[in-house]
Write a structure and sequence with these properties.
The chain has about 120 residues and is mostly helical. It contains 5 helices and no strands.
């Protein structure tokens, strides 16, 4: 699978003026924090707490924005909107999509850390 289908490395690097050290640090932080943020989002959904769902999806959306990952970004955006609207019925399917897409992004980022980030 091409990483560009998951996220745009060129666009993500452009966001940090092609500073690979900063990007590497951001990737490491996100690989560590992303699963925690996903778990928080899932917990808010399980608790039927729409405001908490909206907040956690918003925070995750902000973190994902830096990686230029459209599928993951769109899922977090939709989940945030559903939380704000109190529409938890539709949120479960979107949260499942978010989990799938986020796990793909995390796997790609981990692979990038292992192989090294091109300068």
């Amino acid at each position: 699978m091409n990483q560009d289908t998951i996220f745009s490395l060129d666009d993500a690097l452009a966001r940090v003026d092609h500073d690979t050290e900063i990007f590497h640090m951001m990737v490491e932080l996100f690989v560590d924090q992303g699963p925690k943020d996903l778990a928080e989002t899932q917990a808010a959904l399980a608790a039927h707490d729409a405001p908490a769902l909206a907040r956690s999806a918003h925070r995750l959306k902000g973190a994902i924005l830096q990686f230029c990952a459209p599928s993951v970004f769109e899922a977090t955006k939709e989940l945030e909107e559903l939380g704000k609207a109190g529409n938890l019925e539709s949120a479960a399917a979107v949260c499942a999509k978010l989990e799938t897409e986020l796990l793909r992004l995390l796997a790609t980022l981990r692979q990038l850390l292992e192989k090294g980030i091109p300068s």
